[in-house]
Amino acid sequence: MVRMGPDVPLLNEYKQEFFWKRFPQTVLGGPRFKLGYCAPPFVYVNQAVLFLTPWLFGGIGTLLCQLKLLQELHATVLAGMLMFGAAAGVQALAFYAARRSGTVERLGAPNILVDEEEVEFTHCVSPETVRFIAPGKRFGLNVVLHTVLAGVLCGFGTWYVFLGRLTALYGSIGISMVVFVLSWVTLCIAEYSLIVNTATETATFHAQDTYEITPLTRPLYIFIFIAVDLAVRFSGPVPELQLASQVLHVLFLFLPLLWALGILPPLDALLLWGMEQTLVFCLGGSPMSSNLRLLLMFAISASVAVSNYFIPSTLGVVLFSVSTGFLLSLDLSQVGTLCRRPRAAFGDHGFRRGGSPPPPPSSFGWNLGFRELLLYLSVFLVAMAEAGMLHHFLGSAQPQGLVTGPQGPVSYLLLGLFCLCWTLREIQGAYVFGGVFLNPLYPKGLNSVQTFKQRSRGLYFAAAIRRVLLYLVSPFAMIAFLSMDKSLQLLHRVSHQCGIHTSLQIGVAELRGCSAADAGNSMLPGWDNLGTGVQLLLVGLLLDRVTQFLSKLKFTLTVLVTSWTEKKQRRQSAGTLLALNASLCPLLLLVVTLSALLSAPLLPLFTLPIFLVGFPRPQRSWPGPVGTACPCPDSIFYQQMSTSLASALRTAFARGSLGSLAPGSHFLGRFQDRMVWIMILERGYGYCTVNIKGLELQETSCHTVEARRVDEVFEAAFERPERLGFTQGLNLHWGNALTPCAALTVRVYSDARNVLSGIIDSHDNLRKLQDEFLKALVWLLLRYCVQKHKGFLWSGEEGPGAGGRKSQSSTFAQTTSNQPPEAVVVESNVSSLRFRQDSSSLTSFGDWSDEDDLFGPQPARRTVALVTAEAQPGLAALQTGASLPGSVEMDSLFENMALSALQPLQPLGLGIGMPAVDKGLNPEVFRESPGSLPQLNFSCPQSEVFNLPTGWRTAPLLPSRLLQLRTLFPEDWFRFSLGQFGSAVQGETSEHMTKALKEDEALKELHAQVALSCLISVGAESAFTSPSYVYRLYCGDIPWTEGLDWLSSSKELYQLALRAFRFSFKLLFDQASLGPMESPEELFSTLEEYERDWYIGLVTEKGWHDSVLQEKPFLFSLGHDLAMGTYTGRVLSLQEQLVQVGRLNGEGVRGQWANLSWELLYATNDDEERYSIQAHPFMLRNLTVQAADPPLGYPIYSSAPLHFPCL
Predict the structure, then answer these.
(1) Least C-beta-crowded within 10 Å: which of 14, 816, 1103, 1137?
(2) For residue 810, is pLDDT > 70?
(3) CB 467 within 8 A of CB 1206
(4) Cα–Cα–Cα angle for 565, 568, 570, nearest 5°?
(5) Residue ranges under compositional bias (Polar residues) (predicted)?
């Protein structure tokens, strides 16, 4: 991304024109009075008539009622019936126009030069005109439903705004007329949106309105107002309801403004938000990680609440509330998963297909074993016994005063527990007191993992004490406090609301406020009459809203201050906007307060200091399921580290290192070039549900600016000197959205990249490569024989083909072969000769093959269908013929890969001079048939173990040519390796047997023939002189040689030769960096280490992907930077590293995501260089946009909801 100046237009010219056409339509409910082209007057007249039609029908009913010709009820029915007929007529016209225009479209030819929005109007009721004004409904059920609702809405709306009713409310005919006129404007807007044409709402939750729910949004809010008025009419004279009706009639006039500003949520968001708020603050639950879980938990909790009404005994209420509260506070949905996850299955990596990654099996809570069942059962039984006994013996004897009764000591105990737990939690993080001061007890200097662990032992002891107090002492103290409460005898509902979830969750903060209120009852009349249950609910709601207000206020100040102090954020309008905010400070505080009261995001328009109240939505902010991402090859690094990160998070959550873990909290982790976004989705007793996202590794300029600031914030917290002064002890980055919390020990890959200049282009090194290749090949051939003897050999059909280099998407590639860890299959490129079909038919596509291709030998193209067929055993192999010259196959494996991960283009002219192959000639005639080969006579009986397949001896090479290269074969290395492998095969072998193996000339000649044949086939019979040739061989793009057909015909031998060359290059790299090998034993152990602990290949291969997921200790890859003209080596090493984690301002994240949703879904401002996506070092704007769920954001990895214990 190219960073642009701060005065880049918020919307480009095209989007500005589009916005100013769409916004008036949204305000008026659907009429399109502003078009981008000239339209006949009847288009505007028709829309105006349809817009005012409900007012006309309502006016008729009102007039007849005022003239005493009809009663109010009859006038209401008349207006409703007239509107129903008009709505049915509009829908019939829309249906007729759709059928007519469909026929015309099929017959007429479209004009591609005409603007897509321009419509040719012929007359006022032509099909084009009708379709433009009233597009109609997609579903027949909606046609009926919306038509009926239009009539009902008009009838009740007429009743709602009768002049007589308004005059009785306000006592003034003037005020009544103003309210009457403006109220009908609101009703006309809702009717037009429901029945004629639905406007795009600024409050958009879903990207697409599949089921046409949006037309119901505005009528729903009108029905809510009407319902309150009906309650006033039929409930009798209640002063509170009378006042509420007067206020709502005035607020009714401002509904169009609220709709236009997007403050009122759509139906789906309103339903989810309402259930979530009720579940959390009325039923004591937690926000859920999915809509289905939210619906189920809400239904179960509400059912339990209702059930309390039918329990006659207060003791029964207490026991039922405690038992259901404990069960519902557990993550019961994971019981089946925990039971099916045996300890032996932790070595299996099937979890990587999604779901929760299994951390180390010894950790408490990851399995539902004996320890876990014993703990949960003990807590359950003790809680039931404590609640029943305390309520039975002390509940009825409680005096009127709370402090003087048995609840008094328990309340003080809870306050003390709260203070102690808060203190122990604060000292676990890098900062204390809200991130203002550095924690002097936190380890200083994070040079190594071991040093960090040693310095953190004291904090671990404090964390253990806090964990016992938090999960074992505090819940029982809370149960004791509630069990003795007298209000349980008076109000079953209250006891239940306090018992569910709250009985086994920490309510110490609420109790502190409750006790403070009890101390000053004279200031709050009627507070005691509410009962302890309602008091706790109100205090909990108040604390939540105050916390939100403070977070939103900090976010507001950050946006305001940085819009002027940051030069790159200072727009020309910055001074004006700051002056307006200063002059309208009370209004700004009102907006912040309103958003906190509604638990709605504070929306900074275009991320400027223009603040609006976003519509209320669930804590997750997004409607779709958790776990959607935009995968790329780099996603595997996040997928690999998610296992270890989940285990580290579990430990940090249990210790309190990351602070309060309220659902909706966001954290950011940083390690090298990796950014991890962590969001808390759900929280219960002893468990937590999180979502882990990985941000892109290919950093843009905006990403780099914010990543640099993140590093600075973490360095100030974790890399500080031993002794701090007062000024150094302050958090100088307190205004930043990120507050460092802790460093977590995570098993992750460290990525090191080196430029190979001086190594790969050194002639001295290249001359050694031939000898290293033969030694590695001899070692692999002997090891192949040992594997075959032990039965660890892979079959010819398993593993990937050698037709083309494979690249795999990070999410969907899985390890499907069943070979042991030692049998690693290498993927590579082979000459396309192998895949061309022999055919004499002139009509065959194979005849289009051209061996003298100007661009050199091209690897065979492998489509998705081919790869799928290969991955599914039992399916017939697809035949692959040569493609037509100049054709491009779009269904390649590279379609989902980043460009940086693809193999560099090959230089021109590499294929010139390659011999042509006659299509009618079978190349097998040049080889010796296996039956004509001489019989091998081994002098040692054990030599048969190291015999090679017969087909490997049939290379079409002259014996004299092999004889010339005979001196290159490393005989001493062969004998040494043979002695090492011989003891491995036979166990304790006698010296005589080992000596006989080494002196077997037939065995030596066999391996020499195969090794030298491979040497010639890969074109390495002479010393390597070109780095480009070495790179091509490493990539498996072997130029044509006379033995290549023979080598590629045996997949196993070809893979061994390619792996040998890659091993030899790695040996060359290590010796150039660390020094030469001093002995054969060192070389042998090095090759064993390569085979056991290394994956040496290419980044684009599936084997690289699988090795990362299988956590191979080391990976090596050779690359070529075409821009710089250099060759690079990349080494990944798996080790424990410290990942620095900080807490983000959750309200700032929600506000920026709300603006992103409005900007992309309503204003359609998808410009990649728009202002709201530019780097902002304080708000971390670019990173926040990346972390949003697709399609608005683009994280390259997003885990499914991860459920793990926190005990």
Answers:
(1) 14
(2) no
(3) no
(4) 55
(5) 806-820
Kindly state the tokens that stand for 823: 């049998």
Q: How confident is the model at residue 85 (pLDDT cuts 50, 70, 90)?
A: very high
Among candidate residues 1026, 942, 1032, 936, the one with its CA nearest the CA of residue 979: 942
* Residue at token pair 């002639």: 763
Phi, psi for residue 611 in degrees, rounded to 5: -105, 135
Closest CA to 612 of 257, 344, 372, 931: 257
User: What is the SS3 assignment for 1172-1185?
Assistant: HHCCCCCCCHHHHH
Mean pLDDT confidence for 119-131:
85
Token pair for 77: 């029915």
CA distance 699 to 1098: 22
Q: What is the DSSP letter of 1162?
A: I
CB 75 within 8 A of CB 62: yes
Residue type, 1081: E
Cα–Cα nearest to 938, from 947, 927, 929: 947
Over range 125-130, report the average pLDDT: 88
Is residue 710 packed enough to be buried (19+ CB in 10 Å), middle (13-18) or exposed (0-12)? Answer: buried
Model pTM score? 0.83
Tokens of 488: 């349980």
Q: What is the tens place of the pLDDT at every residue in 926-949?
A: 345 555 567 777 778 778 888 888
Question: pLDDT by residue (tens digit) across 371-388?
Answer: 778 888 998 999 899 888
For residue 941, what are its two tokens?
A: 């009986």
Give the pair of three-digit tokens for residue 354. Answer: 């999604």
Cα–Cα distance between 516 and 444 in angstroms, integer? 39
Contact predicate 635/629, CB 8 Å: yes
Per-position DSSP letters for 702-762, written without gaps between them: HHHHHHHHHHHHHHHHHS--SS--TTTTB-TTTTSSEEEEEEEEEEEEEEEEEE-TTTTT-
Round to whole Å and give the CA distance between 578 and 608. 10
- Other C-beta atoms lying within 10 Å of the C-beta of residue 702: 22
Half-sphere exposure of 626 (CA within 13 A, CB side): 28
